[in-house]
Amino acid sequence: MGESKRIIYWIRRLSEIAMLGWLSMLLLTDVAVAIGNGGLQWLVPVSGVAGVTAVILRRQHRVEGFSIMLALSFGVSVLISGIGFDGAPGAAETGSLLVLTIGVLRHVEPVRRAAGLAVVSLVVLMTEAIGRDYHHSALAFSFLLLFAWSTAAGVGGYLRFQQERRAEAVHSVRRAERLELARELHDLVAHHITGIVVQAQAARTVAETKPEAVLPALDAIATSGTDALTSMRRLVGILRAQDGADRTPGVSLADLRILADRFSANGQRVAFEIGPGFHDHTLPPEVMTTVHRVLQEALTNVRKHAPGAPWIEADLRCDGRLARLRVRNFGSASDPRVSRLGGGFGLVGMAERVEALGGRLYAGPSTEGAWEVAAEFPLP
Q1: How far apart are CA 370 and CA 337, in angstroms?
Q2: Cα–Cα dist 328/369, whole Å
């Protein structure tokens, strides 16, 4: 896990702890009110305990916990109102309902179900304000709870909008990658079939004059056909997983150097090194495709997000049974004007493309303080 992911993880944990601490303080307030009022007012902190429990378990039982909490709160309000008890609304109970409303609007599918549950929560909150008419303050509590519910609904709706917008952006990237991969599949098949046709024609030509040369030619045809089928299966498997790539078969390690040189000519210097023992046939064509795309995406991201980086290091090496591509830039933080725009969708497609080929992609800070993109692939 990278440093940035650890920071996000701890921010979420601390936010969760702070929210539960806030609900606990509200629960203590409910207990204090129950001590003063007595009678059925003790049902309010009990309902508050149920609400805090539903908040804690909301990720595993979001709809179930919310539904139970709505029914319990509504039942307590009707009971207190039915016997004419001068009860007060519950602070922890109300806070839990608002937190659960935000989560439901953000996560529950389909959206009409989420909206329906949110409307039910509004009815329950209004019933709480009217049914627990503490010292004839029902109108004031109704306005207060309506404002609180409106705020919670607005937050939940905004978070859902942001989530769906990012999901649509990721889907668009994957769709574009699939189109690129379909083109690559066509080129790959054409590449292999052309080789098979040429070898078959050569075998036919020498069959009469050099019969001994036919058998090696047939072996070469069989090998080319097997390679073509293997590559096609892997690419079609990736297409079924809705991924893609952008590089035509036949591009060699020299093209990786050309990509780095072109990047250097237009700005930041790139030191690109290919390790010993690495040649054009070390990796299958579809893996070389992804290596080229990852290198292109990583260099493009450096230009967009770290334009002040003085130099970039890139290397492609064999490490045991793995082929590893690393791209690192030093000495420059991300441009905040660019960072605010978001991004990273290119790496979304690349990460799943690499994983579909049995590899792994990492993007984040390295131990040396550089920003690093590393892709690993198993050697055949």
Answers
A1: 20
A2: 10
DSSP 270-298: EEEEE-TT--TTSS-HHHHHHHHHHHHHH
- Tell me if 94 sits within 8 A of 125, measured CB to CB: yes
Residue 319: in which H helix or E strand, if any? strand 311-319
Residue 3 pLDDT > 60: no
Q: Tokens in use for 38?
A: 């007595």
Instruction: Determine the straight-line distance between the first and last CA of the chain, rounded to whole angstroms.
Output: 27
CA distance readout (Å), 205 to 86, 201, 216? 104, 6, 14
CA dihedral 287, 290, 291, 292 (to 10 degrees): 120
Residue type, 268: Q
- With H, G, I as helix, E, B as strand and everything else as coil, classify residue 328: strand
| Lookup: tokens for 156 | 């939940």
Q: How confident is the model at residue 245 (pLDDT cuts 50, 70, 90)?
A: very low
Backbone phi, then psi, for 272, in 5-degree steps?
Answer: -110, 125
- C-alpha to C-alpha distances, 10 to 6, 16, 57, 77, 163, nearest whole angstrom: 6, 10, 19, 38, 21
pLDDT tens for 263-301 read: 777 667 888 888 887 888 888 877 888 888 888 888 877
Q: Which residues contact 291 (CB under 8 A, 6 or more apart)?
A: 256, 283, 316, 323, 325, 375, 377
353-359-363-367 Cα dihedral, nearest 10 degrees: -170
Q: How far apart are CA 61 and CA 163, in angstroms?
A: 20
Residue 336 tokens, joined: 């905040």
How far apart are alpha carbons 364 and 232 in whole angstroms? 32
What's at 142, amino acid-wise?
A: S
Output the CA–CA distances (angstroms, integers) from residue 308 to 150, 264, 304, 335, in the order listed. 45, 14, 10, 8
SS3 at position 326:
strand
The DSSP bridge partners found for residue 271 are 313
Are 148 and 98 spatial neighbours (Cβ–Cβ below 8 Å)?
yes
Contact 321, 377 (CB under 8 A): no
User: Which residues are within 8 A (CB) of 166 and not within 5 positions of it... i.e. 6 or more apart?
Assistant: none
* DSSP-derived 3-state class of residue 342: coil
